[in-house]
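Slide 14.
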Amino acid sequence: MHRIPQRIALSPIALATSLLTLALTQTAAAQQAAEPPMARVEVTGSSIRQLATENALPLTTIKSEELVARGLTTMSEVATSLTVGSTNEPVGGGGGGTMINMRGLNTNRTLVLLNGRRLPNEAIGASSVNVDVVPMSAVERVEVLRDGASSIYGTDAIAGVVNFITKRTHTGTTVTGGWVQPERHGGGDQQRVSIVSGVGDLNEQGWNVYASVDFQQRARLAQSDRPNISDPNLIAQLGGNPFGTAVAGSSSAPANFTVYQNGKATTRTGNPSFAAGCAAPYGGAQYTIPSTKATGAGAGTCILDPDIYPQLLPDNMQATLFTRASLRHHGDRLLTVELLATESTIKAQNPPQVFGAQTDYDKYNPGVRKPLFITPSSKWYPGGSGGVPAVAGVTNQDLALTWSMDEAGPAKTDDRQNTRRLVIADQGELMGWDYRVGVVAAESKRAVGWRSGFFATDGIYRGVADGTLNPFGAQDEAGAAYLDSISRDGITYRVARVGYFGTDFNVARPLLDLAGGPLTLAIGGDWHRETYRDGTDPVANEVTYKVSGTPNSYPRGERKVAALYLEADAPITKELTLTGAVRADHFSDFGGTVNPKLSVRWQPLQSVLVRGTASTGFRAPTLPELYGTPQTRTPSTGKWDDPLLCPSATPSVPGTGSLTTDPRYAGLNLDPARVCNTNLITLQGANPDLEPEKARTVTAGIVLSPIRNLSVSFDWWSIKMKGTIAQITEDSIFDNLGQYQDLFVRNADGTLDYIVKTRLNMGGLRTRGIDTNVNYTWPTTAWGKFGVGLDGTYVDRYEGQNDAGGEWIDSVGKPGALATGSTSANTYVYRWKHNLRVSWNYRKFGVQLTQAYTSHYEDTNAQPNQKPGQPYFNEIDHYTLYNLTTNWNYADNLKLTFGINNVLDEDPPLSNQRIGSRVVFAQNVSKPIGRAYNVRVNYTF
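Slide 15: predicted structure.
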């Protein structure tokens, strides 16, 4: 792995300071150059049209040209590049897409808009917007409001707002082709084609219609294509178990077996193909290698090669259609119609389906496992008539199998997401009022199914028992036909839908003149209905592998929300402006809430602007949190001692308890295996009694513009939440039994009924930090135009609290609680994160170098041997990536772009987040692709 010296990591701040010093020496003539008049525009976070320079809110605007210059080719990359975000780029087989997580407060506390109005949430989670559905070719700019906005937009705006704004109009036809090719062999390459075509001149003809079509795909990247990421020596350094042959084989092809005697398992294990090097007649393919374990259980078995199937990135395809029609009427009024339609598919590859005692038999009874027996009556018994090699000492015993269905190929899943959204809006002036009205109808649908390699579990058991299936080699004609009959390939077993229908209005006008200008009042409101449906077919019970959802479960819910808000912009003097807003929301399922906001903008000098905001916010429980997965009893994730019936001095350490001697329970005839060091029953699922979360946000900032083309800003922010909705972890429960005794529900005789693990309103969260921005462009010279920009976020505090009044635990630079109580996740809050940009433009040629930096942090370190001071405690070093992009306007209608992403070919830092799956790169800061070349051609007819 390449390392970036500390002095280079600190260079952005030093460079920004030098540039600021240099810029301050520029002549006063540049400072006094004439400024063009500014038009009033709509700004994210306000319902009053205003000058962009008048904004009192901490707002970041990124134009589409800048996205290209940074080498960002997908909306997922745009989201993960935001310095205010702790967003993971999706890897593996997850089909939900990319959700923006501002301030580390979780994706369901960040509001995502398209042209100022809501998008439907991703269907299965039903709490966050998948930004992959945004039409990248139609986007003109991205506005990021780094401040709470519940007083204007309502729920989910605690952390901030991201507003994707499309082109207002477009004429002509523009075709763009893009290609990203990794330098190293294997997959991960991306292709993109987009067409934007429009007719009509809005200014001259009074109308315009344009449509944008995007198609993009990415090829899967197998773990075997990046052997450096799964290097056995590096895995061992993390505390993992690198692949080796001196272990017992588990599921394999051909199947391993354990000999049973008198109905009980013995320590005798084996595999009929072990003597032949674990090669079986699979048409030349070999999936396993012999175990070198000499004695005991596991000797004589075969081990599945772990590098055949795992993938680092799945196949991904997406098509997006966005069309917008605009019509001027009755003077300067504007009627618009927008239509968005997307379809994205993630085709994930997994190791083959496995069968036997180490896997669940069905989904209705998780944790219930049955041996997969082959008996001497089967012709496929070792040494039998089917030709399976005999094994010495194996004659008439029953054999329990662990079988991997490799001959059917990898288990491939299909995760398909569709989004539809129609917006009809009108705006203009009526009777002295600026007005804006609109109607939104949208739906998000997600369908999950099996593409290939899936079979009914009970069918496999029957086929082996009656001798139809051969677990030790390729199937004969009858076995192949039987496998076809129990195949579940091509079945969509889960379908979820989220619906959104709403209408909104806003009117605004100046009321009276103040010393600094007109006092403007805006009145607005909206009403919308949300629906949620999630259905998992009973067929999901037949396949226990890679199944999401609960079989034969059809949760659903809906709510109606009505709101009114007021906003007033008061320029007290030409230097001082106060803006106040208040919004009242009423939810059909739990009541109402009122949230105010006050903003202050003071500009004592032309070159100095001071701003600040104070507001309250809230987040309503999502429909799945209230009405989603039905409450079900399932075995605990870990093994524990029942604190009442198997007490321990260290209850957080399983296996340290002993049976109670309390005479009250003497008649229970307690079985240690059921109350000590065992899986206890937990109650999980939705909770219709949840209350909204509440928040308070304060910001204070300063913007300095001492000379022309220089802007420097610092914005301090603080967010405090209470009543955060969380699903508590088992570790937290057993670490703090005194706090969580009420979560243990017992029967009348004292035996445990279940432990409550449903989502609850728990403690709180508080975080604060500073956002900084520096932008400077040197005056144009004969050598062209040079510019530099820095966006950075410093987090001073990120403290979580499991219970109201409980201890505050800081997790900046550590595995964060992610504002969900004690539930940890593979998302981190970095102490410092920045993007530094240096650009040069000369005539028709331009170059930009972008540096993306994240500071060091502690790894997950979840295992007992990964504690501070121990050998496997891992700390991930600061990480720096460079992207270089060049563009050449070859002609007025032809633009060429060439870029190199990850210029220094930095390997991703290794992490023990997912060490058990051998996918050990830190997915939260990097991709596993390595250096990649980016080519883009843009042609306009």
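Speaker note: The longest helix spans residues 11-23.
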